[in-house]
Design brief:
By secondary structure, the chain is an alpha/beta fold. The chain has one domain: Rossmann fold (3-Layer(aba) Sandwich), CATH 3.40.50.300. The chain is about 35% helix and about 30% strand. The strands form two sheets. The protein has a six-stranded mixed β-sheet, sandwiched between helices. A four-stranded antiparallel β-sheet has the order 2-1-4-5, with helices on one face. Helix 4 crosses helix 5 and helix 5 runs parallel beside helix 6. It is globular, with a radius of gyration of 17 Å. The protein binds adenosine-5'-diphosphate. The site of adenosine-5'-diphosphate (ADP) has 12 residues, from strand 2 and helix 1.
């Protein structure tokens, strides 16, 4: 089966000569749950940007659903990304003035979903994350854990193949963080491929595969 995402020998250099990734190869197969761990400055965010196709490597290949992204225009790539990848961030990145339902609906804007379907799909996604009683709440009326659930609903409303979570429990207390990770793992069991970037070893240990990055290189893999 075609991997959901495949990176081959990726190098990323920033201006000033910083080599943030130094020849990284990583394949994410459908249905996997992977933790990407490493200390601060090791290249995790840079790798996340490549995995999410938000940035292109200086050299090497990134394939999303079998498409070499270097062959796609920015417009084609954002359309493919919008359909195939859902993002979850440490700081939730919800719009303050919008209800939970409207925040989740925005996850459908770039997918070209007709307006008449968006609210129903958003409500269904909020139900999947256990928030059907919070549809009309705005972010400031929700707890941290609830906000992250809204962000997760937004990431999965479009049924993406891959969910990329960047320190998803980093702004939450331990118990709430565990519950959020439970939810991500539930969605993974339902079929969404999951990659979690974290510096928290306890979080990483709950995922079946762990990839450790250090100084821009993959150092060790567990569970492959
Ligand atoms: P992590 O997410 O693990 O903390 P990063 O991917 O952010 O690591 O950074 C890896 C290395 O690349 C660091 O040395 C960092 O300073 C450098 N770096 C990251 N982004 C940029 C940038 N936009 N310009 C120059 N250097 C950068």
């Amino acid at each position: 089966m075609t991997p959901v995402l495949e990176i081959v020998d990726a190098v990323k250099e920033y201006t000033g000569g910083v080599r943030a990734l130094d020849g990284v190869s990583l394949t994410l197969h459908a249905g996997e749950a992977v933790a990407i761990v490493g200390p601060s400055g090791s290249g995790k965010s840079t790798l996340l940007n490549l995995l999410g196709t938000l940035d292109r490597p200086s050299s090497g290949t990134v394939m999303l659903d079998g498409h070499d992204i270097s062959a796609l225009s920015d417009r084609q790539l954002s359309a493919l990304r919008g359909r195939r990848i859902g993002f979850v961030f440490q700081q939730f990145h919800l719009a303050d003035g919008m209800t939970a339902l409207d925040n989740v609906s925005t996850g459908l804007l770039y997918a070209g979903t007709p307006r008449k379907w968006r609210a129903a799909m958003a409500a269904e996604a909020l139900e999947r994350v256990g928030l059907s009683h919070r549809l009309k709440h705005r972010p400031h009326e929700l707890s941290g854990g609830e906000r992250q659930r809204v962000a997760i609903a937004r990431a999965v409303v479009n049924r993406p193949a891959l969910m990329l979570a960047d320190e998803p429990t980093g702004a939450l207390d331990t118990a709430t963080g565990r519950a959020v990770l439970d939810l991500l793992l539930d969605l993974n069991r339902d079929g969404t491929t999951l990659a979690v970037i974290t510096h928290d070893r306890e979080v990483a240990a709950r995922l079946p595969r762990q990839v450790e990055i250090r100084d821009g290189r993959i150092q060790a893999e567990v569970g492959v």
